[in-house]
Amino acid sequence: MPIAKGAPWGEAGPLPEGGVVVRSDAEARTVVEEARRAGQPVPPLGLLGGDLCRTLGGIGDEDRLRSPDAMRFPVDLGEVLLDGRLHFFVAHLVARTRGWGQALVAMNAQFLGPWIVGVRAHPNDGLLDVYQARLSLADRLKVRGRLSHGAHLPHPGIEERRTGAMQVELARPLPVRLDGESFGEARNVSLRVVPDAITVVV
Fold first, then answer.
1. What confidence category does residue 9 fall into, taking pLDDT thresholds of 50, 70 and 90?
2. Structural domains of the chain sorted by starting position, each given as residue range(s) with its CATH number in brackets
3. Band of residue 88 on the pLDDT scale cut at 50, 70, 90
4. What's the chain look like in SS3?
C-alpha cells in the first residue's frame, strides 16, 4: 500500500537471499523487465547507484547492503506503453527535443542526474510526477539554472500533474529515455504507476 502522509516508511534489514545488487537505474530496470516478462516476482534490489538510490539516501556501500544497518523500502514502478510497446522504469521517463524546448518527463524519483526535477516526487506514494514543457530558449536557460536547487516550479511553460495514470499524444515523435537508456522514438505515451511493485535496499 502506498505510503500515507506522515506515516513511517521502510524498515531496517539487509538485502535478502536471492536479492540482486544493481549499480544504476538502468540495471534495476533491466532486472525488473526480465522478471516481469518471465512472469516471475521481481527480486529485491540492492541499490549502489542511480537516481532512485540517491532519492532514498543510498551511499553506494555494498557492505552496508548486507548488514543490519541497511534499509528496505517498498517502491512503486513506472509502466509505459511507447506506441504500444510495453516497458518499465524505476526512476524516470524522459521524452524531449534535443534542446529541451519540448519535453515530457515522468518522475518516480526526485533526481534526474544533477537536477532535482521531481520536487514533490516520492517513490512510494502511488503517483507519478509528470511534467510537460514547451519553453523558449530564454526560459530554458532560466529553468536550467534553477534545476539543481529544485526551484524551477511553478513556471507558466511547465504543466505539472501528479497522477496514477495518463495518456499523452505528443505533437510529433520524440526520443525517449527510460532510466537513462534510449528506447527510440514514440508519439503515443501511456503511463501508469504500479504501487508497491518492488522492494529495494540501500
1. confident
2. 11-76 (no CATH), 78-195 (2.60.200.40)
3. very high
4. CCCCCCCCCCEECCCCCCCEEECCHHHHHHHHHHHHHCCCCCCCEEECCCHHHHHCCCCCCHHHHCCCCCEEEEEEEEEEEECCEEEEECCEEEEECCCCCEEEEEECCCEECCEECCCCCCCCCCCEEEEEEECCHHHHHHHHHHHCCCCCCCECCEEEEEECEEEEEEEEEEEEEECCEEEEEEEEEEEEEEEEEEEEEC
